[in-house]
Design goal:
Rossmann fold; 2 domains; 5-stranded parallel β-sheet; 5 strands; globular; transcription regulation; NreC/VraR/RcsB-like_REC; WalR-like
């Protein structure tokens, strides 16, 4: 059972998400929060698998709440998915840098939302299908200039190759087809790269791929 915490200051939005999620046999809403501070408190109390976190909330916004959650070692298993009204929200990439595992636009189709929640908990997705891979590059282009990538020295050539493919938004299945290996082998390489780099999840691996210069905006064609 996937346990989800809803954090949004709009009651109607929370009610809509709750109705959709609670109708699924493998998902339940563990709790609701109307602001970031309450979200952090409930995450520590309820330990959900994932949090659907609105970026803009009173008292404490979603970015600050996300940093508080992802910065707590005791909550390392909790995945945060940011909710935004617009795909080009200026805070989206900052949310990923803050430790969020991905983001969803609020008008995402119900089936896509459910698929995204399951995928993020499984550790196999970054963004909702409604957000293009080109958008990842756009926000990466706004990040700081790539620094000396000495922290990549511990990776094998194959792990660097896989990390670069993760960086341009490919799933494990797509990486497997690109490299002519099994999806399990691709997932193993991704996992090893994450462990070696201390990446919290796949989203953090993407950020590191851009910040190291391993992937550059514009490579998506």
């Amino acid at each position: 059972m996937i346990r989800v915490l809803l954090a949004d200051d709009q009651l109607l939005v929370r009610a809509g998400f709750r109705a959709l999620l609670d109708a699924q046999p493998d998902i339940e809403v563990a709790g609701e929060a109307a602001d970031g501070a309450e979200a952090v408190r409930l995450v520590r109390e309820l330990r959900p698998d994932t949090v659907l976190m609105d970026i803009r909330m009173p008292k404490q916004d979603g970015l600050a709440a996300t940093r508080a959650i992802t910065g707590d070692p005791a909550l390392s298993d909790v995945k945060v998915v940011m909710l935004t009204t617009f795909e080009l929200d200026e805070y989206v990439f900052e949310a990923i840098r803050s430790g969020a595992s991905g983001f969803l636009v609020k008008d995402t189709e119900p089936d896509e939302l459910l698929r995204a929640v399951r995928a993020v908990v499984d550790g196999d997705a970054l963004l909702s299908p409604g957000v293009t891979r080109r958008l990842i590059a756009e926000f990466a282009a706004r990040s700081k200039e790539p620094a000396a990538a000495t922290f990549l020295d511990g990776l094998t050539e194959r792990e660097r190759e896989v990390m670069a493919l993760v960086g341009i938004g490919l799933s494990n299945e797509e990486i497997a087809r690109r490299l002519v290996v099994s999806p399990l082998t691709a997932k193993t390489h991704v996992s090893r790269a994450m462990v070696k780099l201390g990446a919290r999840d796949r989203a953090q691996l993407v950020v590191l791929a851009y910040e190291s210069g391993l992937v550059r905006p514009g490579w998506l064609g």
